[in-house]
Amino acid sequence: MSKKGILLVNLGTPDSPETKDIRKYLDQFLMDERVIDIPKFKRTLLVKGIIVPFRSPKTAKLYKAIWDENGSPLFHYSKIQAKLLQEKLGDDYHVELAMRYQTPSIESALATLKAGLVESIKVIPMFPQYASASTGSVMQLVMELVSKWQTIPPISFVNSFHDNKKMIEIFAENARKHDLKSYDHVLFSFHGLPERQLLKCDHTSNYCLKTADCCKTFNDTNKFCYSAQGHDTARLLAEELGIAKDGYTVCFQSRLGKEPWVQPYTTDVLKKLAGEGKKRLLVFSPAFVADCLETLYEITVEYHEEFRELGGEHVQLVESLNDHPKFIEALAEMAVL
């Protein structure tokens, strides 16, 4: 009996925390035309001539700090999510896991589904908010690979799930493990993007970044905007937890280069809050469905240390969705829609 194919795709991770594997990962990741969206010649000079050679040894040290007996936390939880989803969906479905960069590759996962003679393929990029550099990149590669098949089964994609009710409930549940009243302020820190990538996604050419608060209201014009979807995720979480509008801030981390990225930057918000006398911060990272370098090191270590140096006391990360049973339920609902 033919099965329905489900392809889960996360960003990816190096095969090991050694510098040589970091080089391979960064090279593949940053050479993606949707990640660094500049002409290929300039991108090649930047990535292969500057970023990869100089950044790889430093990034290797960061990965070594979070690598454990299970290897990469992102890959560890991704494998568990795929396994639990397969168990949840049963024998009528065939679940495969892929990484956009490194292993297991999207190409190999699609080949396995093809060999299994699945009757259809549902692709679920594991990024709650849509961005051209993440979800868009996954969609493009899948379509490029499948376009070479002689027989193409029905294929569908999950564009985003930034407002998924179960996801909101899980993050809220994880936050309640901490004493919410003991924190002075809440941050919703999303992975950053260059402003130019937001502008490229504005097909009206007269809305994006025209006002300082254009992303704070989610509407038909900005419904595919990464920043607007992030603000909407934050709003839903704040409502779920009863956090007042002046009790939280949406911000963006992981900048690269000197050009403007989506603002406010998390580092600037830390300085502002410390200057206001805030001592304890609770931080969500709702752009990720599994804890990874950006959550376990950038927030838990770097931002904590930076905030203490500024006069604060503590930065507490709210754990990600990881292997929470309710997230598997959410994935199952996406798979069968």
Automatic annotation (TrEMBL):
Fe(2+) binds at residues 191, 294. Transmembrane segments: none annotated. The keyword Magnesium does not apply. GO terms for molecular function: ferrochelatase activity; metal ion binding. It comes from the Bacteria. GO terms for cellular component: cytoplasm. GO terms for biological process: heme biosynthetic process. This is Ferrochelatase. The lineage of its organism: Bacteria, Pseudomonadati, Bacteroidota, Sphingobacteriia, Sphingobacteriales. The gene is hemH.
